[in-house]
Write a structure and sequence with these properties.
Layout (H helix, E strand, L loop, with lengths): L9 E5 L4 H12 L3 E6 L14 E4 L9 H4 L4 E4 L10 H27 L7 E6 L11 H19 L3 H4 L2 E8 L14 H12 L5 E4 L5 H22 L1
Parallel strand pairs: 1-2, 1-4, 2-3, 4-5, 5-6, 6-7
Helix pairs in contact: 1-6, 3-4, 4-7
Length: 238
């Protein structure tokens, strides 16, 4: 379980002003959690019963400035991202920076905080990736960035040392197409996806798949299994 009756946990959500971020915020608030919302937007500062308890403005590349805020968080959900169809070189750079490198910086920061945390409560990080990690999304820059963060998360999880595993939990969430400003023709609703994330990530499973595509439920576990075997070889022969 991720919440005990005697302890109200704090959830941090990046991309909290987006379609899925708003639904996740509402759901966690309804469940009694305190929510800290991270957003690039200057306008999303309203606080009400369906918003985060607190808004934090941040910029990609300056994740280290958030360390004092991250120390207060029990569960960090990395939900931010961009989807741009431009073929310009700077779009590839931006997609890799926002969708992959920024999330990896958050992951490393939160791991460091967890390692030095004296509390008995484990820190958790839930990272939203995408089917585009291995399946086509008709957007090369998006596919490259999602493939990169997917591989980084898998290696990070499989190469954690035993002491860190006792303090730090990583969950990878593979999402299929859901309706949002970035994808107005998405099949799934953000409300449906947010409830699935809460229900499935509340389990002990590392890999959480939410998709209408049956191939995802076959391919991603296989990919993670081979990554696990590869990391075992690294451990044995390093």
């Amino acid at each position: 379980m991720i919440k005990s009756a005697n302890n109200v946990k704090t959830v941090g959500i990046t991309g909290a002003s987006g379609a899925l971020g708003k639904e996740l915020t509402k759901l966690f608030r309804q469940k009694g959690y305190k929510v800290i919302g991270f957003s690039h937007s200057k306008t999303n500062s309203e606080v009400n019963l369906e918003s985060p308890n607190k808004w934090i403005k941040w910029e990609c590349g300056k994740e280290s400035n958030l360390k004092k805020h991250l120390k207060k968080i029990d569960i960090l959900i990395l939900n931010h991202g961009i989807y741009n169809l431009s073929r310009e070189n700077n779009n590839y750079e931006n997609s890799i920076e926002v969708n992959a490198l920024s999330k990896f910086k958050f992951l490393n920061l939160f791991e460091d905080i967890a390692r030095n945390n004296e509390s008995l409560i484990q820190k958790e990080i839930w990272i939203n990736t995408s089917e585009a990690e291995i399946l086509p999304a008709l957007n090369p820059s998006y596919e490259i960035s999602k493939s990169l963060i997917g591989q980084l998360v898998s290696f990070k999880k499989n190469l954690l040392d035993k002491d860190t595993k006792k303090k730090f939990i990583i969950k990878k969430i593979i999402l299929g197409p859901f309706k949002s400003e970035l994808n107005p023709i998405g099949i799934m609703s953000p409300k449906f996806v947010s409830k699935k994330i809460y229900d499935l990530a509340n389990s002990k499973s590392y890999l959480v798949i939410i998709s209408p595509n049956p191939l995802s439920y076959l391919l991603f576990p296989l990919k993670e299994f081979f990554n696990f075997l590869y990391c075992q070889i690294i451990y044995r022969y390093k």
